[in-house]
Amino acid sequence: MEAVHGHTNDHSHDDHAHKPSGIMRWVQSTNHKDIGTMYLWFSFTMFLVGGVMALIIRSELFQPGLQIVKPEFFNSMTTYHGLIMVFGAIMPAFVGFANWLIPMQIGAPDMAFPRMNNLSFWLLPPAALLLIAAQFMPGGGAGVGWTLYAPLSTQAGPAMDLTIFAVHILGMSSIMGSINIITTILNMRAPGMTMMKMPMFCWTWLITAYLLVAVMPVLAGAVTMTLTDRHFGTHFFNAAGGGDPVLYQHIFWFFGHPEVYIIAIPAFGVISQVIPAFSRKPLFGYASMVYATASIAILSFMVWAHHMYTAGMPVEAQLYFMYATVLIAVPTGVKVFNWVATMWKGSLTFETPMLFALGFLFLFTLGGFTGLVLSIVPVDVQLHDTYYVVAHFHYVMVAGALFSAFAGIYFWLPKWTGRMYNETLGKWHFWLSLVFFNVTFFVQHFLGLAGMPRRIPDYALQFAEFNAISSIGAFGFGLSQLLFLYIVIKTITSGEKAADRQWEGADSLEWTHLPSPAPWHSFETPPVVK
Amino acid sequence: MADKPQKATLLQVIRMVLSAFLGVRQRREHDRIEVAPVQVIIVGVIAAAIFVITVVSVVRLVIR
């Protein structure tokens, strides 16, 4: 990727920026960089809220018996921890990345629909408030699990209605964000920036955006049916009225499995930018990566019922979903192979973004393997709803998505802020996160294999040691993230000046064509990519 | 690039979609041929249907 015109966007255009000052700059913002920043800060705030909920869960589970919270409140915490982390922390974090990076990486001046972009973001805080307000409704938060399964969800208190509306709003925000991303990538690429020249991150987000448009309405349908069952006399999920609670599970997981990839695929995109930069080699098998990502996305629609083997289904269906799930591991394996091959004989250095990317590579692969274990029906019948499942999806969500987000933030922070983070502190953050993550979640495999069910506030005595270890790890992990907050704030306020191309191995347009920090408006004249 | 990429034949599109399902593909091959998105989508949907039918048939075979 090389530009003919070395068009660097200097500050001579800044007088075009009628930037409102103070709070209105953010409320009215149509600037992709400002909106990206807001997405990232919002998701970090939600990460802390969801994190506190996780620590409440782990505090209660530190010892057997009920010490700290009531069981109802515990159930509410497991529910909203899941909802907030998935919809409030991880997804907005990657939309934040998309906003910041996609226009710069394809040489566009901004997103295709800047005002819709503003609305996409500003729908999130009300949804988050609804989720938090649900805790204070009569009867407390809805302790139904993040999957909102019927019949619990059709019987829960008024908090459930707030939760349903929050899910509706979050879905609308995601769909609008996705339409924006698809339109931007398909229509606003700079001359010469063909699809197969785009950085991998743009490709992964294009595919993710299609997934979102396809499945968010399915989730909206599921929760709307729950809402009408609750208030308007329908019986979609009520067996007494001729409905079927298992129908809810099918609809939910038809959304839910692609959702796993909605979270994972942008994470793959970030890793596919970071590993080549620190290996000083182009991504191995770029075309393969694009095709593998697309096929993972298609196959993700065909495996949903592996989440519900024990809900009751014919053995033919169990076998179909088992085989299909095992097969989806093939393109995922190709991606892992490609990342490893990218590093092969590269000039590797191990700055913080690369460390997080390698942490991702190891631990996400481990989470993938436990996923394969769970895809085998007879094994899953034993392990369903145990801590083995909890361990599995935290390896995918935390070590997968979250570590990749950390990698991305350390990688692009110099470009975003114009300042360099403290490398020593960054490495401390990585090692503390890595160690405490494994202390927290590795032992949960053992708990699950020994039969400890998930979503319970009390447990049998034989699970005590591993739970105590896991809780200590959780507090360590939580506190380590405060170090991350400190590092980011310190970078913004007093970090050393970053170079325009801080990482010499990084070759996408934002590094080669734009100064650090990236100006408020960039690529008003599109660069020509050869 | 002196010569323009040629329009893809049906066989090439099928090859492309099948290699996508595996996730392995050479970049050189892509540069040589020009493929319309609609071709890929139609062949992709058919290939996905064949994939499902194949797995279902295998299941039938195993159950019998």
Radius of gyration of chain A: 23 Å
Q: What is the spatial order of strands in the main beta sheet of chain A?
A: 1-2
Task: Examine the secondary-structure arrangement and name the CATH architecture of chain A.
Answer: Up-down Bundle
User: Total domains of chain B, how many?
Assistant: 1
* CATH-defined topology of chain A: Cytochrome C Oxidase, Chain A
Q: What's the end-to-end separation of chain A, in Å?
A: 6 Å
Biggest β-sheet description of chain A = 2 strands, antiparallel
What is the oligomeric state here? heterodimer
Topology, number of strands of chain B: 2
| Percent of sequence in beta strands of chain B | 5-15%
Tell me, rounded to a whole number, the average pLDDT of chain A: 93
| The first-level CATH class name of chain A | Mainly Alpha
Q: Helical proportion of chain A? A: 55-70%
Domain tally of chain A:
1
Task: Report what the structure shows.
- The complex is a heterodimer of chains A (530) and B (64).
- Chain A has helices at residues 23-27, 32-60, 71-106, 114-122, 124-133, 152-155, 159-187, 200-231, 245-279, 286-299, 315-343, 352-375, 377-383, 387-417, 423-449, 464-494, 509-512; strands at residues 419-420, 496-497.
- Chain A is mainly α.
- Chain A has a single domain (33-512), classed as Up-down Bundle (Cytochrome C Oxidase, Chain A).
- A two-stranded antiparallel ribbon of chain A has the order 1-2.
- The model of chain B has no long low-confidence stretch (mean pLDDT 77).
- Chain B starts with 5 loop residues before the first strand and ends with a helix.
- Helices cover 72% and strands 6% of the residues of chain B.
- Chain B is mainly alpha-helical.
- Classes of the chains: A mainly alpha (530), B mainly alpha (64).
- At the A-B interface, helix 10 and helix 11 of A face helix 1, helix 2 and helix 3 of B.
